[in-house]
Structures
1.
Amino acid sequence: MNCIAKEKLLGVISLTAFLIKMVSSTLLFHKSMQTFATFDTDLTPIGSPFLLCKMSMVLPYTLICAIYCVLSTFQNKPGGMTLETNFYICFSFSCIFEAACASVWAHSWIVPAFILICSSLLCQAAALYQAFTRMYYAKNTVDLRISTLWFNRIFIQSSLIFDFAWNSVLAILVLAVVLFKNIGISPFQASAVALAIFAIGLLTWFLIQNFVIEKFVRFTGAEYIAISIAITSLLPSDKISASIFQSLLFLLTMVVMLLFLRLFSIMYLERRRKVRSEVYFLAQI
């Protein structure tokens, strides 16, 4: 099997894996809500608003990514770009792990669900790495069309990191349940620890994104939008304690501030790149 045929086959497999994940999440929607309602922690008393947003926003957006990944394998024209084999493998495994997580969570198997959602996140992170580095090196070595660049940024990079951010919040919700049911700490302590871990991880990502790997993740900020929506979907419940409610509001405020800082960073760095390009062009005259 030649490389082109293999990429097309992997693209179809990745789309099939995503459809399995989508169908699994849809069919197990009500059981997943019941599981969230069963484990009454301060952070995850009810999962319905959170899961409804997942079904109505995150999955359709990621479906576009899966379809575009398949279509990109048929781009043989100059200026097109196909993804690496490892991307399709990582993306497919992330979908399978998430579908399995939905199944075991619906049966109230808490620890296996946490392991599976973490495995899905690792595969998503690997797929994101492949997507970001592939486009960075491709645009510096191949004459890519502007449309190809932006299609990849919007329909692959942004949709994947949107889904990754949402699943990160989901992992924190499951972690709170694990700490409460399996470790034995109080619901408030479990929720507080989970939120603290998430806040530290988010700040760490912001620093890495803007000061370490910025050249790879240009124009990327969809994760902050996803986290803002995810946290907002947790607020309506009347079972959340006052302290956790205030913590969620503080975290939401922090995420919105990071979003604006990220937008400012993108505009500032892009402006500086244009100035440098103009100076370099004038120096060549």
Note: Residues 3-284 form one domain.
2.
Amino acid sequence: MKTVSKNALLRGTGLVILATAVLYGCKDFLSNASTPQGTLNQATLANRAGVEGSLIAAYRDLDCDFSNGPTGWGCAATNWVFGDVAGDDTYKGSDHLDQQQINDIEGYHWGGSGGGAYLEDKWVQVYEGVVRANSTLRLLKEVKASLPTEFSVADANGIEGEAIFLRAHYLFEGWKMWGNIPYYREEETDFRKPNEDSSAVAVDLLKDLDSAIKLLPTTPRNGQKGRATQWTAKAYKGRVQIFNHQYADAVTTFKDVVANGPYALEASFADVWTAFFNKENGKETIFAYQASANDGEPGAENANYGERLNFPYSPSHFACCGFNDPTQNLVNFFRVDANGLPLSLSAPDSWNASDAEFVGGTLTPVDPRLDWTVGRDGVPFKDWELYSNTWARDRENAGPYSPKKNIHEKASGAEATVGWQPQQQSSMNMHLFRYADLLLQLAEAEVETGDLNGAVALVNQVRARAAVAAQGCAASATNNVVAKYPQCAGHTEMTVAINSATITWAKYDVRPYPSFPTPAYARAAVRAERRLELALEGQRFFDLRRYGKAEFEATINGYVTGIGGGREDTRRLYLADAEPVTDRHRFYPIPPIEIDLSKSNGQTNLKQNPGW
């Protein structure tokens, strides 16, 4: 089956993307960005096609390609290195010698040269995206002045709104990472400028998002669902307010989106992370990287490139590369108590006690989202075959589990047919913000503003969806499911009810909260739900940091040295060398090369974050 781009945001634009990026974004950008340089002249781009191509280039930077930074994967759209590995959700995976730079991120040795290389990847991606967005805004202004009939007012406003939104998205990413960052706008010509304080960046982000909201249409321009809309920008505004602890403002913003916006939860958790074309860009998608495979790009680099390391190793179908493997801590977190609620809440001292591999056939009750999130031995792996712990590249280093959300379904036909290890590449979109995330952030804000009834209702919406469906047999003539589970014969469905008689590899249970009796309980429940719902989506580290210094340090340090009755430095011995998380880990260090590049008149304008 031929897989193509799902919309024109990626199709047939490679030359325009490259030329626009070179012309506006790269040559002497630190000191001379106002003077375009490159292989195309101004007349070539000063028209509708040039402006639209420049905007597409800004969207393309949402995920990695070979041009981003020194290592290649620090720029993944999902932030798996900085959000999952640096949190308590995943190990680096693979073996100790592969992608050693991530070892420093995982061990909190962020000042090391290895960690610095991955941080440089992310910095390059953030500011390349900003440059591309600002280039679009400048070019649009020039075309409007020279060719006043080239765009309708609606199209011109839409393009401007999309570019401003993308600038805000990239700078939000930088703000999450580094806090104190420089904020660049389209009129600036010398980019050797100092950092803004984190609080000032928040103000600027909200200004940009308010501008985008005024300009953007309520539905995607040209009917292309990957484009930002007014509702995308409003949702992001609430997200910034949550990260900035503006809880009352976030409640107002998010309630508007919930009441009047186009979003809703998918009926089944299986329909959230999916490569089936008829399910992508569904009602839960607020913003996603629009991956595209077999679209003419010979290396499938428009596909889910940033995730390509995060597939099971040989002898699985995917053959490589065994990174971003779920931790024992995360797997244990999916255990539930007799009421179908997280065991971490009712047994805070023992939920994490088990060091045993959690294999299929172990009937300790668990939340069904475990088997949509984690590949574990003896459980069907979407519609491929039974997952085997032999697919883990180095179990001593990375444990027996594999990530599952990012895996395309076999029946989707979305797998790439070109490039290196094409079986790792697909046109599966990468969620950057989805509606369940928004609902749980609204619940977080309602807890902090005293509306516990509102918060429990929102959390129970998400839990009710989790209770709808579980991983099914997905048995076929080409996999090994029936050999282990004879009751699966004839059951080709990948999604079944959580109490289906075909399921003997797990006992699933997830039930609503009767109430949130206290603010402290409500806070813990919302935070637990975010981990269960959003695990392996690059959110965890940033959530923990947002919860405050005490929660952040206690959870990360406890993950390594002991929390809930278990510790990772005895499960993965290399973590014995992990650096204790302290005040300085609040923000990642700014790459030293960027500080050096900011020099003017012998002085550096960028200042390093405290402690680094």
Note: Confidence is low (pLDDT under 50) at residues 1-37.
3.
Amino acid sequence: MQSMGMNIVLLLSLLPSAGPDDARLKSLADAYQANRSSFVNVDCRFEVQFGKCATLEDALTGRLLETRFICDGRWIVRGPLVRYDFVRRSQLAPGDTQTVPRQRPTASTHGPYADDRYLINAGHILESGLAPGNVSFYGPNSHDGMGIRYHPFNTDIIGPHEYSNPQRYVEGCLTGRLTGQYDGLEIIGGVELEVVSIGLPGAVGKARMGFDPRRGHLLIYMEDSDPDTGRRRYAAYVTETQACSGGRWIPTRRISFHDPDADGTHRTEVLIVGQLNVDDAPPDEVFAMTLPAGMQVDLGRSDLERMPIKGERTVAATELPAMYDEFVKRGEELKRQKAKRRFFGGLQRMLRLPWSGTMWLTLSLVVAIVLLTVYWDRRSQSRMK
């Protein structure tokens, strides 16, 4: 018994333990998430300018050397329901230049190259626009790798659907997958922030995050670096915020400045909120999407084929769980029908061939097995009666 107790103590000592920095990191991430989660109702219109800047100062003040394209966004939230539109503007503002021709969206393009529309009900996600003629439909057990990436809380820096949020970084530290440290108070962009660094164990480059304790612990600054070289990939700043009811805070202007350590011009994204309502619950009718007839539904499962929409269909977000189950059943039935056609097609091809004795014996055995199965099924049913 004593040796067993010593073994348990030894195993526990090998598990990752939370140090003082991890506790501080968790406190900051939880405070950030508390403010973020308080926005249960949102109706926000915004634009994102995609262009280039010569310096960080130009980016912070919005002096773009060129505007390659502008996307108009609308982000509507009511609890688990989300409606999202991110559409590339056909006409640029006066003085802007579109230096890159509009590309035909494909399954591999995203963001400014494709119009994205989402309808979400918790774990059910309907996405239209990324690939022409297709709509992607994800269930609770499938993964949307593209996702919503641009809105006031995210300019493509914390992943699709905010998957790589500060809490997830801290979870990585607590499990030992990542290491983190509390860097203390720093003035970044003229604002005093609580800064943390998190990255892979032994990595040169890490992600740095700056939280503002005076404004709901908003993530005001974030940079990410190459883990091998330490060269920064981007630096992202929130330059304007809005105080909301209940002591909540939301970003209203943010910029992402790419490859800040390089010479020359830098790819830059500027998000500007135009209209915002975070107090009133959006009505039911806005949480809907119309799908044209013939659009192919892709369930994101390799074992199920795409299926066409039968006639134009307007889908409400509240209908998504039932609609997903409907298409899964259709897909499973199509898979069974395809398997039957493949079986009987192979049988027909066999019958056309010159048959050997072995082939006749195999066919006889198959027929016998089928007849025995039918016989035993009927006998079992008669006994149950």
Note: The chain has six helices and 19 strands.
4.
Amino acid sequence: MSHGYQAVGWNRQKKIYDRTIALGVALFLSVSVVAGLLANPHATIETLLIRALGAGAFFLLHVILAIGPLARLDRRFLPLLYNRRHLGVTMFLLALAHGAFAVFQFHANGNVDPLLSVLTSNERFASLPHFPFQPLGLAALVVLFLMAATSHDFWLANLSPRVWKGLHMLVYPAWGLAVAHVFLGALQPERSPVLALVVGAAMLAVLALHLAAGWRERARDREAGVGEWVDVGAPGEIPEKRAKVVALGGERVAVFRYDGKVSAVSNLCAHQNGPLGEGQIQDGCITCPWHGYQYRPEDGCSPPPFTEKVATYRVRLEQGRVLVDSRAEAPGTPLAPARVSAEGEVARAADPSQQEFYVGYLPEAPPGIARATRSVVVGLLLLAPAVAATVSAAHRRLPAAAFEHDVTRVFEGTVKEGAAPALRVERPVQPEARASESSYLLVARNKFGAGGLVSGLDGHRVRLEGKLIYRGGETAIEVQAGSLRDLGAQGRAALSEEDLGTRTLRGEIVDSKCFLGVMNPGQSKTHRECAVRCIAGGIPPAFATLDETGAPRLYVLLGPDGGSVAQECLGFVAEPLEISGRVLRAGERFVLQADPREYRRLP
């Protein structure tokens, strides 16, 4: 506040605050990505960014939720509270980037609108282990958007403090949605307990701080007395230019002592319902500790040109005791303060650590508060990379899988059409080679199969350009559009198929493109929606399982007659299954022919 109106803007403290936030975010993201690469060298950069942005937003959300109770427990945390909205907007931008990357990676470039895909690709609402976690994250993001979009004081003034505060209390439902999003999503496929312990510790810390602050506040909510006029204590019990907060008629009242006078006003600041009773009288005005809004103690009005007002209460002095009328007057009502005789009155000693008073719009914070704030900020800056490194390193190790997205190769071979289009290419003569040719699954760009590209070319020899995708002994080619040239129906005879009999296998259904290396990991619940889009777009479904020796093995999944089961298997993707069917082997490729009606879900 000032005698003349002047917008605070970005003062020195705000600039330092924002630069510190930027440094912390850059530190968290860089450490997260680097640690992720060291721990998981086969992870794609997209996967690492999605994880880093999500973890950063989740970490900031918990820091934000901790600031409020910390400021109530110790006013030295008030500098963090003053600019908390900056931290909230930063957290929303990280969450938005996380969501945008995830939607683009898992839902875009398919046969359904990306947002519709988020809401419809997984409809297992009746199963907790398979409950769709991405809509929960989307719902949390919508709430955080509303809060970020209304963070400016323009909205606070136009919505009214009560409505604005109610809207921003939605941060707690958003927190619950975010926690459910993490537990039902990222944590489910993880084998190490470290991630769950980190998330659990963050949740417990926030809950413990809120309970501690709430327990401390309970004392203030005990009614000071019953009746119209209530004895709130002796004048000496009120620190000079400070307040004693009492509960009268279910409302908190701040009783201030200053310059031999006592006045009482509502404890709720008209700006954001901040605690005026924790403030201090400066320049003759009650100054709110949250954002520095000021009110004259005798009438509850902000000094001109400001127009905020708070309710006032009548005060009188009887037999050395301060009595306050429990009935509030209208906001801005002028009332004469009670006169206090200085003789015989001894002001209550205040905690020296609490004597300093922070006002956010001033260029400098008091020395003690500044030192405490620097210590907390340095601690957070050290904690952020430690959390980032721990979370990144704790993720399960990913298999060697790759997608040569920046290398285009030329291939020549024979096309095999069907539910799983492939290209058979002759190998150089190698005595130790098991087969004289290789078979590459063919897929198109994005989340589409290559069936339309090779239609009518079964048995034809072709030349095409594409990018290799490989994992273990399985390889696929992403065919570059317009590159395929028909060299005529002079291809080699079809590979003979070896019937390995009926077998019962356990594993999960994946899409053969992402699983082989376009995305890594390309399986488990976190990849379900993407796999659904890929399979629905024509990419052959496959069954990922382990062979007799425990080594990973991929089976192209077909129906009993060798036809496509793409539509029938969509509801089973990324779930533990048991499938019994006929196993065939053609060269290096395994095929599982089974009736989708006989797929059995495992616990």
Note: Residues 401-601 form one domain.
